[in-house]
């Protein structure tokens, strides 16, 4: 076997692929995108390693170095690159024509070269800059990559030497080593490394990043961007990084001081504008502390002439926008824009019709905190020492007129909403009856027999077994929860309707019906009876003890057939939603946080909460979410005469709940 190959130079135009090259059947290897780095390197540094060639049919076939050959051809084709033509000669080594191990030679070059260690690569980039005097721009040009990619490698190459040594020795992983690049100061890196490894524990990248956060704030962090101008104006130290977004504001205490000052200024501005007694600021909203705080809400006021004129204009525009939003061809972006406009108008109308009482303003305030990359205001908060226990009241104090004002958070359903809730409850009851055929059959037969044989009044007026299906109307039928509809549809699909053949006379149909199994008959009767259920809230046990007890038996929990959703929450006032979250569901902290949000955001929160209760809920909160429904809808809830709906009013909340 030949052990040495004669050197020679060959014109690029005389080079051709060798059929024995092990990558000859992998054209993707030579794709321009895959050899871009190599092309750039050869353009600047030249061909560092000779090609292995063999004379075939008067040409020099490249046995090893196919990617270099492809890069050379790309350089010829690239008219912007100087110095490379078909006549340009490159260094090669010649394999004799009688060599019988050509495939082995090609394979050896491809598999015997060990891939470069990542840390070696990072450090090599660093030496190119420190020793060779190159810049990130010249390095990027040499290797056909971006300046950002070069700076990324350079950052890892500039990590403290002790940490790089630990990565080489497999004491820490490469990812853990990279995590130290989150802070550009090698001194800070070393201190964190020593602190985290002093007990010999396993070091993780996450732990490193968390520890480095205490050493400053990156300028790309939302807080860093918010305070940077003031921070630098006060002479705060900045640890510069090769990538600007990774530079760090090192004085964490100064960062927090400036943040609190800016939050405080925003809170004070809101205090002056709204007339509150005090203003405060906190970096992160402290839910544990705020749980002891109370909250006041604005109450209704009589708008003056100018305000009433504006309210009328808003009402007219809202009606127009509602019609536009019903256009099924409306694109999502346009719909969302209309929704935002509606939300803004409702908020404006609310501000014109509601205000805090003088008493509440005198004892409440506003806190500004940092959340989600922006300043968040929490308004109407009452400190524990300022909380006044008002007999029979849960919200704000008396209104400015001196008359006793209703609780702004008290839930009093408009008549239209109450009627729709009755309809939804009837649908849920119908689903429960269809799913309990034996019990429903007994009820139906009992009513039929009792009405005929017993003296006196009918045993119940709740079901119409005269075989007329009850028509159910609903203002938002296409938006309600579909659980009961799906359950009824499934019950219908399970019915044996083989006897119901319109081509046969009634006598034949009756004969086929009588031949059915008892269980199939029960399903049919139950489905038919369920279709007659009337719209009503929970039964009054004094007026209809039969249906009251029957509903408790077959529908102990309406939530098995119905789930509150955005369609319902959209029709609630903002104050109602906060009251439900804070009092009914035990989510007081969330209610306090959401109080400064728009009603749209609160509706979305509630919709998501009920669709799939959050994993972070406590057991009691999870149970409350799983069981909640408007009290009069629950089987064992408030009786009908104890939950009479408020009279219909012309206010906007009769159709779309006005933000409160």
What class, by secondary structure content? alpha+beta
Radius of gyration: 39 Å
Distance between the termini: 91 Å
Lateral strand order in the biggest sheet: 1-5-3-4-2
- Tally of DSSP β-strands: 14
Strand content: 5-15%
Structure commentary:
The strands form four sheets. A five-stranded mixed sheet has the order 1-5-3-4-2. The protein is an alpha+beta fold and 660 residues long. Among the domains are: 6-112, Alpha-Beta Complex (Conserved hypothetical protein from pyrococcus furiosus pfu- 392566-001, ParB domain); 261-382, no CATH class; 435-535, no CATH class; 554-633, no CATH class. The model is unreliable at 389-406, 452-456 and 637-660 (pLDDT under 50). Helix 1 packs across helix 2, helix 17 (415-434) runs parallel beside helix 19 (483-493) and helix 18 (437-453) packs across helix 21. A hairpin with a 2-residue loop joins strand 13 (364-371) and strand 14 (374-382). Helix content is 47%, strand content 9%. Residues 8-111 form the ParB-like N-terminal domain. Residues 640-660 are annotated as: Disordered. Keywords: Coiled coil. Residues 304-362 form a coiled coil. Residues 641-654 have a biased composition (Acidic residues).
Topology:
Elements: E1 6-11, E2 15-17, H1 36-45, E3 51-56, E4 59-64, H2 66-77, E5 89-95, H3 102-111, H4 118-130, H5 136-143, H6 147-157, H7 161-168, H8 174-179, H9 186-197, H10 205-213, E6 217-218, H11 222-233, E7 238-239, E8 248-249, H12 252-274, E9 278-282, H13 287-290, E10 294-295, E11 299-300, H14 305-325, H15 332-353, E12 354-355, H16 358-363, E13 364-371, E14 374-382, H17 415-434, H18 437-453, H19 483-493, H20 506-514, H21 518-530, H22 545-554, H23 566-569, H24 574-584, H25 588-594, H26 599-611, H27 619-627
Parallel strand pairs: 2-4, 3-5, 9-13
Antiparallel strand pairs: 1-5, 3-4, 6-8, 7-8, 10-14, 11-12, 13-14
Helix pairs in contact: 1-2, 4-6, 5-6, 9-10, 11-12, 14-15, 17-19, 17-21, 18-21, 24-25, 24-26
């Amino acid at each position: 076997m030949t052990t040495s190959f004669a050197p020679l130079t060959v014109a690029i135009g005389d080079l051709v692929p060798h059929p024995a090259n092990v990558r000859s059947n992998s054209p993707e290897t030579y794709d321009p995108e895959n050899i871009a780095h190599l092309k750039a390197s050869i353009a600047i540094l030249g061909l560092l390693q000779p090609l292995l060639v063999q004379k075939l049919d008067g040409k020099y076939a490249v046995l090893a170095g196919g990617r270099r050959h492809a890069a050379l051809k790309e350089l010829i084709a690239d008219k912007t690159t100087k110095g490379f033509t078909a006549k340009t000669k490159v260094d090669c080594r010649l394999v004799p024509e009688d060599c019988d191990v050509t495939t082995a030679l090609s394979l050896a070059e491809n598999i015997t070269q060990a891939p470069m260690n990542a840390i070696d690569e990072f450090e090599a980039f660093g030496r190119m800059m420190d020793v060779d005097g190159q810049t990130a721009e010249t390095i990027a040009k040499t290797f056909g990559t971006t300046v950002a990619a070069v700076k990324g490698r350079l950052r890892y190459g500039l990590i403290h030497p002790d940490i790089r040594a630990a990565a080489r020795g497999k004491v820490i992983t490469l990812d853990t080593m990279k995590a130290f690049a989150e802070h550009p100061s090698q001194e800070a890196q070393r201190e964190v490394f020593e602190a985290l490894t002093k007990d010999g524990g396993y070091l993780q990248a996450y732990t490193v990043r968390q520890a480095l956060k205490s050493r400053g704030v990156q300028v790309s962090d939302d807080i860093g961007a918010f305070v940077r101008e003031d921070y630098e104006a006060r002479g705060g130290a900045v640890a510069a990084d090769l990538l600007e977004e990774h530079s760090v504001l090192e004085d964490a205490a100064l960062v927090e001081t400036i943040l609190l000052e800016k939050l405080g200024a925003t809170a004070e501005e809101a205090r002056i504008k709204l007339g509150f007694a005090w203003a405060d600021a906190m970096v992160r909203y402290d839910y544990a502390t705020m749980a002891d705080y109370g909250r006041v809400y604005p109450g209704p006021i009589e708008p003056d002439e100018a305000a009433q004129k504006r309210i009328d204009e808003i009402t007219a525009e809202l009606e127009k926008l509602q019609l536009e939003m019903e256009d099924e061809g409306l694109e999502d972006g346009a719909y969302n824009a209309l929704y935002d406009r509606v939300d803004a108008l409702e908020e404006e109308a609310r501000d014109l019709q509601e205000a805090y009482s003088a008493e509440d303003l005198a004892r409440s305030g506003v806190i500004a905190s940092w959340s989600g990359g922006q300043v968040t205001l929490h308004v109407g908060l009452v400190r524990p020492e300022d909380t006044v226990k008002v007999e029979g009241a849960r919200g704000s104090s008396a209104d400015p007129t001196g008359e006793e004002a209703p609780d702004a958070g008290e839930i009093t359903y408009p008549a239209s909403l109450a009627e729709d809730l009755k309809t939804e409850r009837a649908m849920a009851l119908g689903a429960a009856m269809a799913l309990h055929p034996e019990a429903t059959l007994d009820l139906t037969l009992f009513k039929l027999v009792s009405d005929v044989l017993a003296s006196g009044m009918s045993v119940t007026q709740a079901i119409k077994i005269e075989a007329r299906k009850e028509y159910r109307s609903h203002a938002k039928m296409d938006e309600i929860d579909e659980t009961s509809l799906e359950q009824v549809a499934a019950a219908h699909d399970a019915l044996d309707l083989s006897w119901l053949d319109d081509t046969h006379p009634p006598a034949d149909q009756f004969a086929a019906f009588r031949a059915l199994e008892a269980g199939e008959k029960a399903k049919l009767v139950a489905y038919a009876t369920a279709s007659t259920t009337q719209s009503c809230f929970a039964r009054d046990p004094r007026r209809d003890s039969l249906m009251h007890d029957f509903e408790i038996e077959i529908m102990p929990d309406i939530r098995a057939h119905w789930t509150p959703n955005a369609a319902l929450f959209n029709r609630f006032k903002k104050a109602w939603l906060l009251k439900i979250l804070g009092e009914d569901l035990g989510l007081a902290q969330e209610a306090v946080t959401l109080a400064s949000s728009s009603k749209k955001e609160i509706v979305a929160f509630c919709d998501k909460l009920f669709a799939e209760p959050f994993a972070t809920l406590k057991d009691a909160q999870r149970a409350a979410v799983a069981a909640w429904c408007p009290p009069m809808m629950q089987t064992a809830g408030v009786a009908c005469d104890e939950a009479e709906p408020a009279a219909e009013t012309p206010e906007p909340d009769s159709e779309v709940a006005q933000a409160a």
